[in-house]
């Protein structure tokens, strides 16, 4: 008997750990509800995770397989399940966030020589793309050049019927908690994800490069919530898009390279989970103002594009990349709110919340040293709305009181021009001091 430990790979298609286990013999799946991850996570994200675990269990059952669900810390749960089932080995797809690496080391210590790791969370795994002389990239453009030149992975079909795996009589499979969500959730599971991918390839890919910056998010795939939990294979998505071809496809697959770059950065520079990628920027004079933070988080700053973004995110769990950049730049550069606090609160609102992409996104938008964007580039939320929501429909939808106009309405928590000057002076001082 073999055990497939699913973590951020809640799928049966293109899953190298599952394929290798089934090649070795009868196998059962396992999901561990890890309190170190789940207890600090928002209700909507727990609910989204649980719905996808339930869908994976159904996908197993349709093929005659079993997916076990257990609660506890993995380095205690896995040895127990391995002993109960007399499992010979554990197969898992590698994750590389700081906590995942700590967790996996503990599991390896508890089960020496019995865990086999596979790639499959990214198109190109963290740590794989290195400079010609060795060492990690810190800038996206040269990273992406090598990313595009890397060989394509061989995709793996979803398995057919599982060979029967005899469980001890009366063995408890464990139940998937029915967690409530405060936002409507997209359809869960890999069938829904594969269907959404195909629909996007048919209807959105061709013009993606032109439509992706619309603030209302109508020009993008909205597949991130599936990629985050590995419900959809990024390798399959990239290959299907490249088969379709065209400028839209190349741009879209380039965004998957950004996802990989985010994973690579956090893998190589784990300090960015706590402090600025370039630690000089930790010295910015942060203003931990509870009122401004609350206004930002609840979408009542008085700046329409910022409020529309935060209200949409709170109501749906999704926000376009363009709107994410607007709300993050407002928080970090204009309000000088402690970025870690904003990053954490923001991640909890996102169904696609992901450590690596969120940290990279916040540090990129905040000018904290990720990539080559100059710190003095400060988005003007008014211009952003003019350009990327020209008719004002998105603003009207989420902030009806602004009448679709991008200028501040009511009592604004910040004077935008004064805030911009304050940031530029402070950032200039930090830049000059080093
Ligand atoms: P599409 O435009 O259809 O792109 C396809 C896929 O490429 C996405 O599903 C995503 O997996 C990946 N991708 C696209 N843009 C980026 C990017 N800039 N960085 C990394 N991957 C990207 N993405 C997350 O998945 N989780 C997060 O927690 C997250 N937080 C962010 C926070 C900020 C402040 C910013 C600026 C960006 C953040 N992103 C995050 C990246 C990006 O905004 C989302 O991935 C994207 O908006 C998701 O929408 P989509 O699936 O329609 O993307």
Automatic annotation (TrEMBL):
EC numbers, comma separated? 4.1.99.3
Which cofactors are reported in the record for this sequence? FAD
The residue ranges of the Photolyase/cryptochrome alpha/beta domain are 1-123
Gene Ontology molecular functions: deoxyribodipyrimidine photo-lyase activity; DNA binding; FAD binding
Q: Which key words are in the record? A: Chromophore, FAD, Flavoprotein, Lyase
Q: Signal peptide: which range, if any?
A: none
Q: Does the keyword Flavoprotein apply?
A: yes
Q: List positions binding FAD.
A: 208, 252, 352-354
Q: Where is this site: Electron transfer via tryptophanyl radical?
A: 286, 339, 362
One GO biological process this protein is involved in is: response to light stimulus
Q: How is the cofactor bound?
A: Binds 1 FAD per subunit.
* Key word Lyase present: yes
Q: What InterPro entries has UniProt attached to this entry? A: Crypto/Photolyase_FAD-like_sf, Crypto/Photolyase_N_sf, Cryptochr/Photolyase_FAD-bd, Cryptochrome/DNA_photolyase_1, DNA_photolyase_N, Rossmann-like_a/b/a_fold
Show the Pfam families listed in the entry.
DNA_photolyase (PF00875), FAD_binding_7 (PF03441)
* Family of the protein in this entry: Belongs to the DNA photolyase family.
Q: What is this protein called?
A: Deoxyribodipyrimidine photo-lyase
Q: Tell me which species this is from.
A: Calidithermus roseus
Q: What is the lineage of its organism?
A: Bacteria, Thermotogati, Deinococcota, Deinococci, Thermales
